[in-house]
Amino acid sequence: MSRVSRIDKADLVYHITNRANGRQRIFSEDKDYLLFEHIVQEAQERTKMCIYSFSVMPNHWHFVISHEE
After folding, report:
1. What H or E segment, with its residue span, contains residue 46?
2. Does residue 1 surpass a pLDDT of 70?
3. pLDDT of amino acid 58
4. Confidence at residue 23, expressed as pLDDT on a 0 to 100 scale
5. Between the CA of residue 56 and those of 5, 33, 46, 60, what are the distances in Å?
6. Given its phi and psi angles, is residue 26 left (phi above 0), alpha (psi -120 to 50 degrees) or beta?
7. pLDDT, tens digit, for every residue of 14-48?
8. In DSSP terms, which residues pair with 66 in a beta bridge?
9. Which of 26, 49, 57, 67 is least enclosed by beta carbons within 10 angstroms?
10. E strand spans, the chain
């Protein structure tokens, strides 16, 4: 069953998280984290996303973001 589309409004702050299946590791080496940060930076440059903070752990990550108008 798919999820219902979520509303994305400017000026609201969102906590976004994602965890690997079965608590498997996503990131093993420093280069894995650096590549992920590079991809996030590219996404931020392409969108109107404001990242307030983020935390990346071996098997999951958290972001606090908003969408600017």
Report:
1. helix 30-46
2. no
3. 96
4. 82
5. 26, 8, 21, 6
6. alpha
7. 999 999 998 899 999 999 999 999 999 999 999 88
8. 13, 50
9. 57
10. 13-19, 49-57, 60-67
Backbone angle region of 51, left / alpha / beta, with phi > 0 → left and psi within -120 to 50 → alpha: beta
- Give the tokens for residue 65: 């973001």
Contacts (Cβ under 8 Å, ≥6 apart) of 61: 17, 18, 26, 36, 54, 55
User: Is residue 65 within 8 Å of residue 8, measured between CB atoms?
Assistant: no
**Total residue count of the chain as it appears in this document:** 69
Can you tell me which residue has the tokens 């996404």?
A: 43
Q: How high is the pLDDT of residue 24?
A: 94
